[in-house]
Amino acid sequence: MTASPTVRRRRIARELRQLRERAGMTLDIAARQLDMSKSNLSRIENAQIGIKPRDVRAALALYQVTGPDAEALIEIARGAQQRGWWQHYSDVLPEWFEFYVGLEAEAATLRTYEAEAVPGLLQTEAYARAVYRLTAGEEGLDRKVAARLRRQEVLRRDDPVELSVVLNEAALLRPVGGRAVMAEQAAHLHTVAQLPNVTVQVLPFAAGGHPAMNAPYVVLTFPDAADAAVVYLENLTSGLALEEAGQVRGYSLVHEELRRMALDPVASLTRLEEASRYFT
Question: HTH cro/C1-type domain location, by residue (predicted)?
Answer without folding.
Answer: 16-70
